Fold this sequence. Notes:
Layout: H1 2-15, E1 60-62, E2 67-68, E3 97-99, H2 110-115
Antiparallel strand pairs: 1-2, 1-3
Domain Kazal-like: 40-88
Protein name: Kazal-like domain-containing protein
GO biological process, one term: prostaglandin transport
Amino acid sequence: MLVSLVSTACYVSFLFLGCDTGPVAGITVPYGNKSTISSLAPYSACNSNCKCQMDSFTPVCGTDGVTYLSACFAGCTNMNLTGCTCLTLAPPGNATVVPGKCPSPGCKEAFLRKNYKK
């Protein structure tokens, strides 16, 4: 009985572990100071001429700490992930992104990595 109780308590506590997705432009946060063209898709005035496709999810992390669905949705004009016009905190032409989603602040998953290292 005691083992079942402890097991259940552990199981329930693991339900609350995990990571928040963090800010995603056009999905969880609006594009900074720019109008959103459609509330159903992550299109904005800064990427309206880019012809971004929704069928490919290749997230990038902007220097503004926001995840974009792709370099195209970040408004990047150069193949080396620079010149990203949708980022708000960088001067025009200096905004860059890196591949992958931005780290989530306060991620509870760190508990598992710290306590269950091999």
